[in-house]
Amino acid sequence: MAGAKIKEILDVLDNSLQIERGTVRVNDPSKFRQKVQKLAEISALESGEKQGLARYLTRAAALDLGIVPASIHDLYMARGRGEVPPVFTVPAINLRVLAFDAARIVFRVAKRVDAGAFIFEIARSEIGYTGQRPAEYTTSVLAAAIAEDYKGPVFIQGDHFQVSAKRFGADPNTEVQAVKDLMKESVSAGFFNIDVDTSTLVDLSKPSVPEQQAVNTGLSAKFTSYLRTLQPAGITISVGGEIGEVGGRNSTEEELRAYIEGFRKDLAKEGAGLTGLSKISIQTGTSHGGVALPDGTIAKVKVDFDTLKHLSQVARRDYGMAGAVQHGASTLPEDAFGKFPETETCEVHLATGFMNMFFERLPEALRNEMYAYLREKQASERKGDMTDEQFYYKVRKNAVGPFKAQSWALPLSVKEEINKAWEAQFTKLFHLLGTKGTRQYVEKFIKPVVIQPNLKDYLGEAAGIESVADLAD
């Protein structure tokens, strides 16, 4: 490996990283930790060969330092067998903006409370409007782990790798292939946890629950089978399924059983002995991002914790899975989060609340610039009686990608204020979700496999931008 771009990057890193016979080595860990932000910034803001090299070098250097992208599958299966107590809920954290800075704080808090069971994730929709392809997201997370001197397995997840019902109806083969292409790109980038979401295809007009779930189970099985062909040797990708679209009516035991049993039958048709699901997402009354009231505050939501507990127990007791997953939770009131471990919820997805903290602390001039952009580009999303507050709350996520460079360039004082708020929130969440002390379970059940990155995966053509307006976060 040689060339002007490599030398340029190594110079930026003050030669704390070296390459010998194609092998990346960190020869000054302390200095490299101080400089690694440069790799994350190149990955996020530049393009072409330099960007690809920064992503490749970050992943290779992380491996050299004992930071390993991993699957949480074996921990979840141990929980399903009763070998891990269901007394904590794994936070799955979607980092839409300033992912490197936010991930640093997550790792900092995790080290402080000896946590190991936490996930970084990004949804198909978020990849689109935040302008973060999987390789960039992985780079931000791993660079953050390096900066915080974190060691061990790191769980990175594709959240809501969802099928668009509209596009599937118009051209099912093309839409299925689009999801497969994203899966392949993501696994290459170190996403060894994938939530398959074909719940958009549940057909409630059918007379029986198994019939309603039939397309969902069949396509989930096909995607799971495909993921098993992608997973590197020694790794079992953790695959999650979903009963019904989040934001719809609450899930039932009948639906859960119909989905899991239908899925298992359909997976058996794909091939003998294929490993299935580790968890199951259900609907309990929340919606993605929360619902903004006319004054801009968020409507209170009543989560059906009884359903959450019952379905978690059924999934674990009768099907050997880790339990049920709760989506759309970051905007819930604080007193709700302690309920998730009490109800034996295996995983909770958190996203919008962290983005809200970012927008609330932006300099007014930048926020106004973003809102002017949204008024022009997102005008079609404004419904008749929407207030300004409701409109901006609904669409402001769409300014994250176009204003990525401005976010990176925020004054240090502003970033410090955002980071302080994030750190306080992550600390609370890790405490309330029972994440403290979970490193012991990760160390016992997760044996991370080192998969060296392939330079070709980082220097190929960038994936195109797709429409994500009808996909869930």
Describe the structure.
With about 475 residues, the protein is of the alpha/beta class. The chain has 3 domains: about 60 residues, no CATH class; about 325 residues, Alpha-Beta Barrel (TIM Barrel), CATH 3.20.20; about 35 residues, no CATH class. It is about 50% helix and about 10% strand. The strands form 2 sheets. Strands 4-5-6-7-8-9-10-11 form an 8-stranded parallel beta barrel, surrounded by 7 helices. Helix 3 runs antiparallel to helix 8 and helix 11 packs across helix 12. The chain is globular. About 50% of the residues are buried.
Biggest sheet record:
8 strands, parallel, barrel
Total DSSP helices: 21
CATH architecture of the largest domain: Alpha-Beta Barrel
Full CATH superfamily name of the largest domain = Aldolase class I
Please give the alpha-carbon distance between the first and last residues. Answer: 39 Å
User: Helix coverage percent of residues?
Assistant: 40-55%
Parts with pLDDT < 50 across at least 5 consecutive residues: 288-293, 461-465
Instruction: Sum up the overall morphology in one term.
Output: globular
Total strands: 11
Please give the domain count: 3
CATH fold call of the largest domain: TIM Barrel
C-alpha-based Rg, rounded: 21 Å
CATH class of the largest domain: Alpha Beta
Strands in their spatial order, largest beta sheet = 4-5-6-7-8-9-10-11
Q: Structural class, judged by helices and strands?
A: alpha/beta
Overall residue-averaged pLDDT value: 92
